[in-house]
Here is the input.
Amino acid sequence: MSTAVSEKSGTWRNWAGNVTALPVREVTPASVDELSAAVRKAAEDGLRVKAVGTGHSFTAAAATDGVLIRPQLLTGIRRIDRAAMTVTVEAGTPLKRLNMALAREGLSLTNMGDIMEQTVSGATSTGTHGTGRDSASIAAQITGLELVTADGSVLTCSESENPEVFASARIGIGALGIVTAITFSVEPVFLLTAREEPMTFDKVTADFEELFTENEHFEFYWFPHTGNCNTKRNNRSAGPENPVGPVRGWIEDEFLSNGAFQVANLLGRAVPAAIPSIAAFSSRVLSARTYTDIPYKVFTSPRRVRFVEMEYAVPREALVETLRELKAMVDSSTLRVSFPVEVRTAPADDITLSTASGRDSAYIAVHMFRGTPYQAYFTAAERIFTAHEGRPHWGKVHTRDAEYFSRAYPRFGEFTALRDRLDPDRRFANDYLRRVLGS
Here is the structure.
């Protein structure tokens, strides 16, 4: 198969539509060799290179005016090692396809995020995570990586091979090279029982430590302009399987959570004064439910209503105070917020620029419906998050720069030194990386 190269590519847009780029050309390599050749050719032409997955980042992490690499032909499972309990997968594979393929093999990742449209490399490179008391982000489940570096050579890394690269490249924001394959630790497929129920904001925040401690995976959504939350507890189960019925699943996950929610947001965008009433209604529309299924059917949900998002990780012990400040800010402002605020957790990990690097973390994500002005809300929220030593998600809207990150991450210098070594000419640079890592 030959490489598909279009010299005059069109405008690239991300999923949310808030980032656009006009690359000189797009390349869709069908092999690692073709990708290496594309990187070398870009160097000859004096062009920067970026790989882009599904564009699910809200930042310009993948934007380029040079060569845009699309990895959609680099997909599928390379090998499953049942002795080591690992799976090696091509970088362009969507998480959805990986999860389904693993389930057919009787295997599963230990933890995963809520959305599974992203490619494995895009999701891990930006630090995508779910929620977990003991199990961490998708990147924390990586045991090996293969990447094409700035000179076109292929570098493999793991805890035993190029360990200093492994420490950083699992969440590399595209700055160290182009990831071509990832090896994940997996386990035999298991069952999770999900318990979803409404709870008041005051009760969730008062009992947060207990809810966190007693559940393997706890998360909740707070609806601004109300004192209402929806909580979700996922715990391993001996079974039997008891999935959400198809009719109820369609009503709650498609009609209410996507269709009706889209209509409510369109109404709120047209008539902002109606948002508090809509929020009060939305927060009560989903009733309590309990179901048991395989992991990806419990962890992930369809997200068809488009939005823009900011998410910060704060030290877990600072979560409740941070959240109460956020609620007080919204309550005392003229802001009208139609999207719930999502709260999750992760244990400390050892990845250089992971938002949970070296500290137990809690995540607070604020969203605005696509097409509504979000700057005032995000600016006010960011002021609160940064006052609590927050670290922004690499793929979500934020205004922080390298100076801030050098203070927020004890190992920041370790990452930038490795970047100097692997990409001295900044072949993989763009405006976003210049801002967050320095030039």
